[in-house]
Amino acid sequence: MSTPTEAKTRKELIDPALKKAGWDVGNVELPTGVSDYALYRPKGQGKRQ
C-alpha cells in the first residue's frame, strides 16, 4: 500500500467531488478581487453539526 500524498488525495478524492459539485477543476485562471471559500450544501442535504 502506498503512502497517500497531497497530489494523490486531490486527484482521487477532492477533484472528483469538486467536479460533481459543478466546479471547473481544469480552470487554472486565478480569481481577481475578493475571494471567499465556502462549502456548498443544497437545501435539504443535511444540517451543520
Specify the helix fraction band. 25-40%
The secondary-structure class comes to mainly alpha
Extended strand count: 0
Identify low-pLDDT runs. Answer: none
Give me the strand/helix succession: H
Average predicted local confidence, pLDDT:
78
Cα end-to-end separation: 33 Å
Radius of gyration: 14 Å
Summarize, please.
This protein has 49 residues and is mainly alpha-helical. The protein has one helix at residues 6-20. The protein is built from 1 helix and no strands.
Give the helices and strands, then pairings.
Blueprint: H1 6-20
Molecular structure report:
By secondary structure, the chain is mainly α. 31% of the residues lie in helices and 0% in strands. It contains one helix and no strands. The radius of gyration is 14 Å and the shape is extended.
What descriptive keywords fit this protein?
single chain, 49 residues, mainly alpha, 1 helix
